[in-house]
Design brief:
The complex is a heterotrimer of chains A (about 475), B (about 70) and C (about 350). By secondary structure, chain A is an alpha/beta fold. Chain A is built from 18 helices and 15 strands. Chain A has 2 domains: about 35-255, Rossmann fold (3-Layer(aba) Sandwich), CATH 3.40.50.970; about 270-485, Pyruvate-ferredoxin Oxidoreductase, domain 3. Chain B is an alpha+beta fold and about 70 residues long. In chain B, about 45% of the residues are buried. The chains are: A alpha/beta (about 475), B alpha+beta (about 70), C alpha/beta (about 350). At the A-C interface, β2, β3, α2, α4 and α10 of A face β1, α1, α2, α3 and α4 of C.
Chain lengths: ~475, ~70, ~350
């Protein structure tokens, strides 16, 4: 028989220097507490598996809140219940490191049910050690979600009553129903036989993480003689009598054989490529892209309201108008009406184009209204300024009677554009907004068709068919006879 | 020869090691240590080095087993 | 080279250019486009994007990623920020850097998704439990949404403090041309980070200190840091204020409205000026110390989309002065109307 020494693991600090007081070699745990036993099993496993240096230990709220006094690893202490969320991000920050998420029953099964369930469901490549002693320890013996029926605690002084407090939660069974976890088991540390079984399972779970197999969950039934109000030597019996009948010790799920290692994602782009994609074409001056032009200049702040049904490209027409303005060295702002309305069938946005800095992007008084449907025309026409302009989609707006009194009174110029029909004739009703833009450019030659072409080419660089379609729609609108209703 | 070393000042007297020992060579002292606990003691012989006492001890550094 | 972006997209681009490695978020209007843009760009760059199960989880993921040494961020709106205040307290206590974007909507409760500035108290006075502050930047343009993300990460790392970008719904939702700067280089090493290797063997992030004196020392250390930030990092914009008889005070979208009004009423011969807080915490009290010396100044008008939250900070900063200070505000998702401001200016 070779020499074998069992002593304090190298995964523990030699001296517990963070622990206040003089006793820097002993734990903060009560006599007979299971935490120390479990700590030792974890420490031995990470040492034997060569994981210690690369491990980050996430301590919970509860009696093991100070687990970082002991583990000679990276350490972080999480808010009550949040350890799986913290562990998730630590692991994703350093996918080649190892993360142990250590939680008690109050932490994991009450306040932290959302976090544990979702970390498990995502299959985070971490190891969760769930210490279930059926009671709150650190806060002073209150009822836990895992407390047993009839168990007397500080907050169930007459015993847990299922009619009032429901039933003890079986977390392993719940977690095992999820697809992602690779290892889910319940074990205990109430006697040496079960401690040795727990030892095996902890090693298996950590090994799974080492092999990047995914999420493992080991629930450990543990003793709390202090809050159970029994002597340490009677804790074994208490657990056998109360906990073991309710909490089955078994491996609920083990798909380690089938589980494939989680691969690292590879970058698909450099940031410079994204910046380049977002960049608008550059023109040195407003007339800088060739072609005959008699561009008009925007001399003062001009406020647009563009409105219609969802799906008519109202918001993107506004944005496109702004982009044309930007490449022509104007200032511009765009803001949508956001919220339920934008999902409910109507949409509108406010656009301001200006030679000067723009204050608020919000448009109250409108210079130019672009209305794609009747309700929008009716809704916004009375906000159009005196001698303002209204473009309306006369393919589907036939009845102007409601707006005419105001339009006449305010000497508003009314321009019908056969936009929907132009789009339909191209076989794509979505082109209605671009057809409208084509006509707007004709009536208000601030911009050139060729500039719009360039923007379209950039915007849909991977979809040449769409570029062509847009260009055609633009021209259908542009070439349309002016159908001005000057009233 | 296998033997067990118990650091008496770190022992909290839970007696888990005593229960776990298959050879019954551990017992609780009649003295108390500086922290006020009766502590586990090794009889001095009979240890087989199985390590059960080590694994069942909730303290991190109270028991060492040599085999 | 210009790009045309939404405020909510620009803040993501700024963060990416600042070297932000991870985004943990939960959707909420009017901040959702931040999460959308992050979901689009972060994975393409092999950086982490994760839609958390709640804002509570998201902020704790940010805590984990910050502890691990990443530049990391999240974004939300009032109701979500309320949930994040728990985690924020832990992050501040552990002195971890991160960026949080709040696109403020109207409250209280579920409120509505219109713009407001009513998270001011929550953001500038800590928000969560305990003695801590976070640095709060208030952009008023899409360009600043981008720039402040970059500045925010710098400040967060320098001071090891969470930085919040506080924008109203208008700034988040609007689009404007922006210039994208070059990516930030030379992000400093964090020797305190949980790097998942030998370097981190003695590294710990915790906020529990049972010893009262030890915890007081933690608080005093935070206090010293807060004072240093208050001394060095106050930012504000002063516009045509030196000779003003009336000074308008407002931040975010309101400040743009006020600036236009200053120009408008000056044409009519009314000497108005603007003080725009850019850092909401530290509150730019230096601006108000300064204006106390302005000879012509008679009146200060605070304009905000909240119930006087900024007003009371201005009032405190002008303590003992004889200046008249008034409040013009709207709530519920409504914007302040120019005519209400004009009336207050011309009646002064």
């Amino acid at each position: 028989m070779g020499n074998k020494i069992l002593k304090k693991s190298e995964a523990f600090y030699d001296v517990f220097f963070r622990k206040p007081g003089d006793e820097k070699k002993s734990t903060t745990y009560c006599a007979g507490c299971g935490h120390g036993i479990i700590h030792k099993l974890i420490a031995e496993a990470i040492t034997d598996l060569g994981m210690t240096e690369k491990t980050t230990f996430v301590s919970p709220v509860g009696c093991s809140v100070f687990a970082y006094y002991y583990f000679k690893t990276g350490n972080v202490e999480a808010a009550h219940g949040r350890a799986p969320a913290v562990a998730t991000a630590v692991k994703r920050s350093h996918p080649d490191s190892y993360v142990i998420c250590y939680q008690g029953d109050g932490d994991l099964a009450a306040i932290g049910t959302a976090e544990i369930l979702h970390a498990a469901n995502r299959g985070e490549n971490i190891t969760v050690i769930f210490v279930n002693n059926a009671i709150y320890g650190m806060t002073g013996g209150q009822m836990a979600p895992t407390s047993l029926l009839n168990q007397k605690t500080a907050t169930s002084p007459f015993g847990r009553d299922e009619a009032e407090e429901g039933y003890p939660l079986r977390m392993s069974e719940i977690i095992a129903t999820l697809d992602a976890p690779v290892l889910v088991a319940r074990t205990s540390v109430h006697d040496i036989k079960n401690i040795m079984q727990t030892r095996k399972l902890i090693r298996k779970a950590l090994n799974a993480q080492k092999d990047k197999k995914g999420f493992s969950f080991i629930e450990i039934l543990s003793q709390c003689p202090t809050n159970w109000k029994v002597k340490p030597e009677d804790a074994q019996e208490w657990m056998e009598k109360n906990m073991l009948p309710y909490y089955k010790r078994e491996v609920f799920k083990d798909i380690l054989d089938q589980a494939a290692p989680v691969p690292h994602p590879k970058p698909r782009k450099e940031i410079a490529e994204i910046v380049e994609l977002l960049a608008l074409p550059e023109f040195k001056t407003r007339k800088d892209n060739g072609g005959e032009t008699t561009l008009k200049t925007i001399r003062r702040e001009t406020k647009f309201k563009i409105a219609g049904f969802g799906g008519q490209g109202v918001l993107s027409l506004g944005a496109f108008l702004c982009e044309l303005a930007i490449v022509n060295h104007y200032h511009s702002t765009w803001i949508p009406s956001y919220g339920p309305e934008m999902r409910g069938g109507t949409a509108n946005c406010s656009v301001i184009l200006s030679p000067e800095e723009i204050a608020s992007p919000v448009v109250q008084e409108i210079d130019i209204l672009v209305a794609f449907n009747h309700p929008s025309l009716v809704k916004f026409h009375s906000n159009v300024k005196e001698e303002g302009l209204i473009f309306y989609n006369n393919s589907i707006i036939n009845d102007l009677s409601e707006i005419m009194p105001y339009v006449r009174r305010k000497k508003i110029q009314l321009i019908g554009v056969d936009a929907s029909n132009a789009a339909d004739s191209l076989g794509d009703p979505r082109m209605v907004n671009v057809a409208m833009l084509g006509h707007m450019i004709k009536v208000y030659p601030y911009f050139q068709l060729q500039q719009a072409d360039l923007l379209l080419e950039k915007k849909f660089s991977t979809k040449p068919r769409l570029v062509e379609l847009n260009k055609q729609a633009l021209r259908r609108g542009f070439e349309q006879d002016e159908m001005e209703n000057i009233v | 020869m296998s033997h067990v070393v118990i650091k008496k000042e770190l022992c909290k007297g839970c007696s888990f090691c005593i229960k776990a020992c298959p050879k019954s060579v551990l017992s609780l002292s009649s003295d108390i240590n500086n922290r006020g606990f009766n502590y586990a003691e090794y009889a001095g012989e009979g240890c087989t080095g199985c390590g059960f006492c080590f694994y069942s001890c909730p303290e991190l550094d109270a028991i060492e087993v040599y085999s | 080279m210009k790009s045309f972006l939404k405020g909510n997209e620009a803040v993501v681009m700024g963060s990416l250019l600042a070297g932000c490695q991870s985004y943990y978020g939960y959707p909420i209007t009017p901040a959702s486009e931040i999460t959308h843009a992050a979901a689009n760009y972060f994975p393409q760059l092999s950086r982490t994007f994760l839609q958390a199960e709640s804002e509570v989880a998201a902020i704790n993921m940010v805590y984990g990623a910050a502890a691990a040494g990443e530049r990391t961020m999240t974004a939300s709106s009032g109701p979500g920020i309320s949930l994040m205040c728990e985690g924020l307290s832990y992050i501040a206590a552990c002195e971890l850097p991160c960026l949080i974007v709040d696109i403020m909507r109207a409250g209280p409760g579920l409120g509505n998704i219109g713009p407001e500035q009513s998270d001011y108290y929550q953001l500038t006075k800590g928000g969560g439990h305990g003695n801590y502050n976070t640095l709060v930047l208030a952009p008023n343009s899409v360009q600043e949404m981008l720039d402040f993300a970059i500045i925010g990460f710098e400040l967060a790392d320098n001071y090891r403090i969470p930085v919040i970008i506080a924008a109203d719904g208008v700034i988040g939702q609007m689009m404007e041309p922006v210039t994208l700067p070059d990516p930030v280089k030379n992000i400093p090493e964090k020797e305190w980070a949980l790097t998942g290797d030998k370097r981190a063997e003695y590294n710990l992030h915790t906020s529990i200190f049972l010893d009262h004196d030890q915890l007081e020392e933690v608080n005093l250390r935070l206090d010293r840091k807060h004072r240093q930030i208050m001394a060095n990092e106050q930012l504000f914009e002063s516009y045509r204020a030196d000779d003003a008889e009336i000074i308008l005070v407002g931040y975010g979208i309101v400040s743009r409205q006020l600036k236009a009004l200053v120009n408008q009423v000056r044409k009519q011969g009314i000497k108005a000026g603007l003080i725009r807080p850019i850092t909401l915490w530290p509150f730019p009290s230096k601006a108000f110390e300064e204006i106390r010396n302005y000879k012509a100044l008679r009146k200060v008008i605070v304009a905000e989309m909240s119930n006087g939250q900024l007003f009371w900070d201005v009032k405190a900063a002008l303590d003992n002065s004889s200046l008249e200070i008034s409040l013009i505000n709207r709530m519920g998702g409504n914007l302040i109307e120019d005519q209400d401001l004009l009336k207050e200016i011309t009646n002064s």
